């Protein structure tokens, strides 16, 4: 947050998301690829780039190229073992190539797979999970199941950048590909309609503010009962506060601000709304209350499908069965599992979300008795995890960690095995790493699924159901039983 409100230094574009380094562009002669050369795309990388080889055998990762295509490329980065390029000309297009639905495709850094037909996107994501597990010696008996919803208008949560340029023009949008610059948005095909409708009036309001440089970014959230706009702002400006209040009345939304630089506090400019989202239970829907700053899955439809999948995979849960839900958030899986009859110990590192989880359990208890205990715990340390396992002696463990995965938890689960383990992951690479620990420690994968949480992007969510087989195995013995 220290740079909020200040002009950032210009960053050299790496030419590819996620790759670090100080190498600049190299002379074209060093690439070995001429402007007239045609490359055959033989595969797709995990991030959706096409993969080809030069006549000399060097690998080239090509943005915008698809499997089976023939393309001419321009190299924008040369490395020792591979080049990075983008498509200049498509000589022969793949059957799965489609016209991207978004006019900002190719500039906006958000949706990088819109040129690939939706069914092919999802097959690619299933293949990525299988390949990463395969690198750990784990073979699935059948392709992962698919958990998917709508292809457009799905995103209920988004963070938009705000920047005032040297001429005083205000920009609002997502980052451009491979840089900190913003793409001004008037439409966004993946936002839910209620959020997309705010883009134009919000940019008009920002242009009318007296202190727009005090605004760092804006978070948008659609819940089942309210649409919320949260402004990250360095300091209060009374005149601009009144403008935001007028905007809230005109657009029928609620507005809050994170005020301050180092330790921002939440300040509501409108009445505090009930921010609630529904998730399925075994008999009826449950309501989760959330607050700005809480983790909430961006795709509400897919999240509900994932919860339903978890209930189905873990069914039947016997009355009073002990479940330990780690990285529990505000109770996304904890409450549905408790509604199915389990006694749930829900552990979460964020104290505010632990409080919210307890509140959610009590708020839903009027419909049926829910046995949920909320606990704050540092789940990155093996000692804390071992202590929880010893204290609760669970029969079922549910994991939903951040991108870093749950290596400490996985190792502890080998020392203190449970009969069933459901691992929900937002990073297939760390999931595969942790799965290897578990399989070598005696677990087998019984079910696998890919959840298309962020449609049109290379990001994928995964679900693996493990059962403890009773004896340690080599990774090659960890095949799914389908």
> Major beta sheet, specifics?
8 strands, mixed
State the strand order across the main sheet.
7-22-23-21-20-17-18-19
Q: How many angstroms separate the termini?
A: 47 Å
Low-confidence stretches: 1-30, 474-479
Give the CATH level 1 class of the largest domain: Alpha Beta
Shape: globular
Proportion of residues in extended strands = 25-35%
Catalytic activity: uridine(1939) in 23S rRNA + S-adenosyl-L-methionine = 5-methyluridine(1939) in 23S rRNA + S-adenosyl-L-homocysteine + H(+)
Function: Catalyzes the formation of 5-methyl-uridine at position 1939 (m5U1939) in 23S rRNA.
EC number: 2.1.1.190
InterPro entries: 23S_rRNA_MeTrfase_RlmD, MeTrfase_TrmA_AS, NA-bd_OB-fold, SAM-dependent_MTases_sf, TRAM_dom, U5_MeTrfase_fam
Structure characterization notes:
The protein is built from ten helices and 23 strands. It has 482 residues and is α/β, with parallel strands linked by helices. The protein folds into three domains: 24-96, Nucleic acid-binding proteins (OB fold (Dihydrolipoamide Acetyltransferase, E2P), Beta Barrel); 127-149 and 276-477, Rossmann fold; 157-222 and 226-268, Beta Barrel (OB fold (Dihydrolipoamide Acetyltransferase, E2P)), CATH 2.40.50.1070. Strands 7-22-23-21-20-17-18-19 form an eight-stranded mixed sheet, sandwiched between helices. Strands 10-9-8-11-12-13-14 form a seven-stranded mixed sheet. α4 links the parallel β12 and β13. α9 runs parallel beside α10 (428-440). The longest helix has 18 residues, at 118-135.
């Amino acid at each position: 947050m220290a740079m909020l409100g200040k002009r950032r230094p210009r960053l050299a574009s790496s030419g590819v998301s996620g790759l670090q380094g100080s190498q600049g562009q190299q002379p074209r002669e060093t690439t070995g690829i001429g402007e007239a050369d045609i490359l055959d795309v033989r595969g797709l990388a995990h991030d959706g780039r096409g993969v080809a080889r030069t006549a000399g055998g060097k690998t080239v990762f090509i943005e915008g190229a698809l499997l089976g295509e023939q393309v001419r490329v321009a190299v924008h980065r040369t490395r020792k073992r591979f080049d990075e390029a983008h498509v200049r000309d498509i000589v022969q297009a793949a059957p799965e190539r489609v016209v991207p639905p978004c006019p900002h495709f190719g500039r906006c850094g958000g949706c990088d797979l819109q040129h690939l037909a939706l069914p092919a996107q999802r097959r690619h994501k299933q293949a990525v999970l299988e390949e990463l597990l395969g690198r750990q010696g784990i073979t699935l008996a059948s392709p992962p199941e698919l958990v998917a919803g709508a292809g457009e208008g799905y995103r209920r949560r988004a963070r938009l950048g705000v920047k005032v340029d040297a001429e005083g023009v205000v920009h609002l949008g997502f980052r451009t590909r491979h840089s900190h610059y913003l793409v001004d948005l008037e439409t966004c095909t993946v936002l839910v309609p209620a959020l997309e409708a705010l883009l134009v009036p919000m940019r008009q309001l920002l242009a009318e503010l007296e202190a727009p440089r005090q605004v760092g970014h804006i978070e948008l959230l659609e819940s089942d009962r309210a649409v919320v706009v949260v402004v990250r702002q360095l300091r209060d400006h009374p005149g601009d506060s009144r403008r935001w209040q007028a905007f809230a009345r005109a657009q029928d939304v609620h507005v809050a601000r994170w005020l301050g630089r180092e330790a921002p506090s939440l300040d509501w400019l409108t009445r505090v709304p009930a921010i609630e989202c529904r998730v399925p239970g075994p008999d009826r829907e449950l309501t989760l209350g959330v607050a700005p700053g809480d983790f909430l899955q961006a795709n509400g439809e897919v999240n509900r499908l994932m919860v339903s999948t978890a209930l189905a995979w873990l069914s039947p849960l016997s009355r009073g069965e002990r479940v330990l839900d780690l990285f529990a958030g505000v109770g996304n899986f904890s409450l549905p599992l408790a509604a199915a009859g389990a006694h749930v110990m829900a552990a979460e590192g964020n104290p505010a979300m632990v409080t919210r989880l307890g509140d959610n359990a009590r708020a839903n208890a009027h419909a049926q008795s829910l046995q949920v205990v909320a606990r704050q715990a540092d789940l990155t340390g093996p000692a804390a995890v071992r202590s929880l396992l010893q204290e609760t002696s669970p029969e079922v463990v549910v994991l939903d960690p951040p991108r870093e995965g749950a290596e400490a938890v996985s190792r502890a689960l080998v020392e203190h095995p449970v009969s069933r383990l459901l691992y929900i992951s937002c990073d297939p690479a760390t999931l595969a790493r942790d799965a290897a620990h578990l399989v070598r420690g005696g677990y087998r994968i019984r079910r696998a699924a890919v959840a298309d949480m962020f449609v049109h992007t290379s990001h994928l969510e995964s679900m693996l159901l493990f059962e403890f087989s009773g004896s340690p195995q080599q990774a090659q013995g960890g095949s799914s039983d389908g």
